Amino acid sequence: MNNFVSVIQFFLFVTAELTVLFLGISTVVTIILMYMPQDKLKNWLAHRGIWGNFLGATVGSLTPFCACSTIPMTLGMLSAGAPFGSVMSFIIASPLLNPIIISMVWVLMGTKASLIYFFVTFFGSILFGVFLEKIGGAKYVKKVRIQSKCCCANNESVNIPINFSKKLKASFISAWSDFRAILIYLLIGISIGAVIYGYIPQNFVTKIAGPNNPFAIPIAAIIGVPLYIRAETAIPIGLALSQKGMSMGAVIALIIGGAGMAIPEMIMLAGIFKKRLVSAIVIVIWATAVIGGYVFNSML
Q: CA-to-CA distance for 210 and 48, rounded, in angstroms?
């Protein structure tokens, strides 16, 4: 009965916390994006050299795109002549530095964890964007055009209100619509996390994925890929595992691996990139997850 009570308490508390967080952050980000047209974002990425990679990672961190909008924007940037390395930094950063993911890590795991997560993924996006350009990844871009009707809140076809109050209302409506779309995935993740929190023995998790197991991080980074539903699903599961003794590094590797190597997005990337480049992106994100995991364990 005590375990059951713990499960219910975990479920209700995390559900309430993530609901408020998701709606609040989504509303704020949508308002910001109303003042940042995608054409302007594309122009930022026209800079070459390491500065272009920095801007690519920055744009990726500011834009919570889903796969249906990331891919057309990627094609638009490539068609506009944006440097290949900048585009790669954008592609890597976009799923990993989603503002909602950063906020969830901050609320559930603490300020230090969210800062480490941000800097590891941000600078990883820059460095690996440079790496993919240096090894000649640009020659593996297919000459295709993908037309996709974006399902995300930042779709340019949406009429943007003029005054702030109407922008705020429209942003909240958009945030609510996005929240309803991911609610089932969020509840699945919280439910799994609650069961783990209430019934999985702590010594079992510590033995398998605790800080004393040096292989826990690379394995967690791999497991994150087939287990991927949405990052909003993985984070409450990771929270429960961390409270049961899983090392923070392994938790972060699980989140980065799942969010960065999302199977739906990889399938869409295969439509515009050849297999070698898609494989290189997967390896790069896995390496980011592993490096990030070990950094977390050494600093937390």
A: 43
Nearest to 224 by CA among 254, 250, 249: 254
> Residue 287 gets which letter from DSSP?
H
* Selection from 10, 248, 3 nearest residue 114 by Cα: 248
Query: How far are the Cα atoms of 7, 189, 205 from residue 2, in angstroms, in the given order?
Result: 9, 21, 20
* Residues 54, 83 contacting (CB under 8 angstroms): no
Question: Alpha-carbon distance 215 to 116, whole Å?
Answer: 21
Q: Spell out where the chain has E strands.
A: none
The string of pLDDT tens digits covering residues 16-35 is 887 887 788 778 877 877 77
The answer to whether 30 touches 152, Cβ cutoff 8 Å, is: no
Count of structural domains within the chain: 1
Contact 207, 272 (CB under 8 A): no
Domain membership of residue 220 as a residue range: 2-299
75 touches 146 (CB < 8 A): yes
Longest dimension (CA), the chain: 62
Q: How many helices (H) and strands (E) does the chain have?
A: 14, 0
| Span 108-135, pLDDT tens digits | 678 888 888 899 899 999 999 999 999 8
Query: Any idea of the CA torsion for 218, 296, 237, 189, to the nearest 10 degrees?
Result: -90
Q: How is 87-110 classified by DSSP, letter by letter?
A: HHHHHHHHHHT-HHHHHHHHHHH-
**Rounded to an integer, what distance in angstroms lies between the CA atom of residue 51 and that of residue 188?**
40
